[in-house]
Amino acid sequence: MIDVLVADDQALVRDGFRAIIDREADMRVVAEASDGVEAVELTRRHRPHVLLMDIRMPRLDGLVATRRVLALDTPPRVLVLTTFDRNDWVYEALRSGASGFLLKDVRGSQLTDAVRVVAAGEALLAPAITGRLIEDFLARHGLPSPTPDACPLSVREQDVLRRIALGESNSEIAEHLYLGISTVKTYVNRLLTKLELRDRTQAVVYAYEHGIVRPGHLRE
Predict the structure, then answer these.
(1) The Response regulatory domain covers which part of the protein (predicted)?
(2) Among 58, 69, 121, 167, which one has the highest count of C-beta atoms within 10 angstroms of its own C-beta?
(3) What average pLDDT is seen over the chain?
């Protein structure tokens, strides 16, 4: 059973999410929060597997609340939902550690499928899509100068990270780097652990911010 906490300042939206989630046999809503402060408090109390987090909420917005929730000892997977399709919010949500991002106009089946994906420990957005979102953000805002020499990864781990940023699967990475799939899995798990990252999507963000990949590489 996947325990879900819904955080949204609109009661009607929370009711709708609850109705969609509770009709599924493998998931249930364990609590509802009307603002970011409640979201953090109820996450600490109920320890849900997945937290549906709105971005625009009173007292504490969803981006700050996401960072606080993910700093807890047993953090949930966070699925950010909003009515606004803004790449800068997508980027900040992913950078804060969210595992996915959805607009509120998705169908019920898309929402429940997304909950299952993030509950299983996977990132909702494909790495290639994440890369394009980051490129758009960089083009408009820029980031501090990258420091690739300070990266704690080995040369081979950086090679694997570059391939992750290209959106390649483990089998594709294995083919391009002439490695076994089990070896690639070991490298992926090792680099995520070294960098203290939750999933491949966060790895893409890291790769851009530290100069391991550069804007435009997806189109080469």
Answers:
(1) 3-119
(2) 69
(3) 84
